[in-house]
Amino acid sequence: MADIAAVIRLAQFLEPIQSVVGKAAAALARTCSVNGKIDPYQLDQHQLASYELALIYAELRAAITANEASTEGAPELQQSLCNLYIANAIASIKGRLEPLLPDFGLDQTEFDAVFASDNLRASLRFHGEPVRLANIGQAVIDCGGDTGQLVLDEEKLMMQDAFQRIAADVIKPLAEDIHRQDLTVPETILQPLREMGVFGLSVPEKFGGTAPDDQEDNLTMIVVTEALSEASLAAGGSLITRPEILTRALLSGGTEEQKSHWLPQIAAGSKLCGIAITEPDYGSDVAALSLKAVRTEGGWLLNGAKAWCTFAGKAEVLFVIARTESDKSLGHKGLSALLVEKPSTEDHEFTVEQEQGGRLIGKAIPTIGYRGMHSYDLAFEDYFVPDGNLIGGEEGLGKGFYLAMEGLTGGRIQTAARASGVMRAAMGAAASYSQDRKVFGVPLGSYQLSQVKMARMAAQVAACRYFTYSVGRLLDAGQGKMEASLVKLFACRSAEWITREALQIHGGMGYAEETPVSRYFVDARVLSIFEGAEETLALKVIARELLNHALRADALRESGVQS
User: Fold this and answer.
1) 267 CB neighbour count, 10 Å cutoff
2) Cα(59)–Cα(54) distance, rounded to whole angstroms?
3) Sign (positive/negative) of CA torsion 30, 34, 36, 40?
């Protein structure tokens, strides 16, 4: 039997697991490649293995981040939650790998050497002991569902406190009515947030925002988003997403004149933004979009449809991806980005008539959650957009796909922060209810199963938060685009499970609309769909990049041998 010190140190297993996962990626890359490049057809023939590989990497990266957070000087509860997550992640990675060993080019002996060792088995049993889990869960309940604080500088801590207060005082009291009555986010929320500079978090200071002029400030955006999302996903944290995406697109490809004109208005919140990328027949397949933009005197005429355009009613400017080249064989190279202006409205249906004869029709899509911003179907009929609103001008023709992707990178890390906020709200609600609700004469939270649930939930939330903030720091250093996709995948899947468990702890009351946890549950469900549907994100972004990276590493090794 392994000694207790060896059992406790879960970190010792992460490096050999990382090595096995790297071999799996390399083998799958070779299987899916033709002439040294990933072949789309071959990749589609191995979708399950690719999908599982993406999830494995997300869990592994979260475990590594959790290990970094479980330093010796960290609070005892924080260390316990990090170790519990690492144990759960190792068990999950083992379960994802083993059924697909042939696809991953691994033999059973090689696999067992890592995952069936006596030390690992003993460690997983140690960290999964019912009494240990129950004690952790009770500690989580006693602190109101809090999973611990992150290491932030004084400025970020002050910002966190300020936005937690405005979320609690302004947004939270209105959140239930907005959700249950399907209202539009009111000015009583929007105006205080304008005054707090929410819409300018990604806009450089020289254009009227609060971001540094010489680098990104994703960490501030994460702090603010998480705080606001804890009060309401739709009426809080998600208000930042659209200006974030449009700002990144303008900074990446806009002309200096466009930046000077639009960015100060975005930062001030005087021009609320909507995003029109998805189409009825094309969701995450951006390259296949077909909304037409045809040249006319002084500008472009838009014809076609868009779907799931969130906040398109209230918005006064829409970031629209349109096909400016009629030859569809050009794929994403035929797409451009335009800024489409329209009047603001809170109506669920609207029609905009232009003097030139063009028309834009919008209709809100009824949804089970994420209410308040409303997602619209849009129909453009000869809708005129002036030349000056083509992002990048003539140089921007054919670059719409890249501008959209640039914006969505920020949207993905911001979505991870939104997921963290919703999970924190669910944890707080579950902890409170487990203390107040009595079952068979004793508090629900005093039962072992409730405590174990809370421990496992808290470990997952803690890992998500550490991972999200870690990626934010990477992005601020000019790295981390791949990790932004990983953490989006990980955090959004986690939010579904956390809110499900929180609702389950509430029992029948969790299913009642009068209980906020029911809102957290239906709101969380959308997180794995927008900003890149989970399957598309895993297969077309994460797995593809992992396999390409493996091919590059193989090529470097071969080059080294030959030289």
Assistant:
1) 26
2) 9
3) negative
pLDDT at 3: 46
pTM: 0.92
Residues ≥6 apart with Cβ < 8 Å to 413: 218, 221, 222, 468, 471, 472, 475, 480, 484, 487, 488
pLDDT tens digits, 491-531: 999 999 999 999 999 999 999 998 999 999 999 999 999 87
Residues in the chain: 563
Question: Can you tell me the distance from the alpha carbon of 499 to that of 520, in angstroms, rounded to the nearest whole number?
Answer: 6
**Strands 317-323 and 273-276, how do they pair?**
parallel
What confidence score (pLDDT) does residue 437 get? Answer: 92
Mean pLDDT check: name the lowest of 287-301, 303-317, 463-477.
Answer: 287-301
Q: Rounded to an integer, what is the distance from CA 426 to the centroid of its chain?
A: 17
Q: Identity (one letter) of the amino acid at 44?
A: D
pLDDT band of 26, cuts 50, 70, 90: very high
**Domain of 54: which CATH number?**
1.20.140
Is the pLDDT confidence value at 338 over 90? yes
* 60: its two tokens: 């592994």
In this structure, the answer to whether residues 395 and 308 fall within a common structural domain is yes
Question: What is the C-alpha separation between 434 and 506, in angstroms, rounded?
Answer: 8
At 398, give phi and psi (nearest 5°).
85, 5
Phi, psi dihedrals of residue 361, rounded to the nearest 5°? -115, 130
Q: What's the CATH number where 373 sits?
A: 2.40.110.10
DSSP 357: S
pLDDT at 282: 61
Query: Rounded to an integer, what is the distance from CA 373 to the centroid of its chain?
Result: 18
